[in-house]
Specification:
By secondary structure, the protein is of the alpha+beta class. The chain is built from five helices and four strands.
Length: about 120
């Protein structure tokens, strides 16, 4: 199961000071999770917090993994967790089209032998 985890500082917390205090432990934990394939991608939202793409068997596994991260365990950040599913809506574009219509592209030039 693929999940998007958006970590934001908790209200009323001095996030910058706390992040500095727990940074080494947090980075070590994230690196361990990355090495085993639980954390697949990591991004910065441009300020305190993190955006993670996780791969776990269940949503509960993801929640437990996030709760164990030092910043979450010490009540510095909280995570919003969004389950990601394959995007299948593009199939609607081709649902009523035949094979020739479903693959738009440039017209094929005709040769003099086939132009009748």
């Amino acid at each position: 199961m693929k999940l998007l985890a958006i970590g934001r500082p908790r209200a009323g917390v001095d996030a910058r000071g706390a992040i500095i205090r727990y940074a080494a432990a947090e980075m070590g934990s994230l690196w361990s999770l990355y090495r085993v394939g639980v954390v697949r991608e990591m991004y910065s939202p441009g300020g305190p917090g993190a955006v993670l793409v996780l791969e776990t068997d269940t949503r509960q596994d993801a929640l437990a993994t996030l709760a164990a991260l030092p910043l979450a365990a010490n009540q510095v950040i909280e995570f919003e967790l969004i389950e990601l599913h394959p995007f299948t809506a593009l199939g609607l574009l081709f649902a009523s089209s035949g094979p020739a219509e479903s693959a738009p592209g440039p017209a094929m030039p005709t040769s003099p032998e086939t132009a009748s």
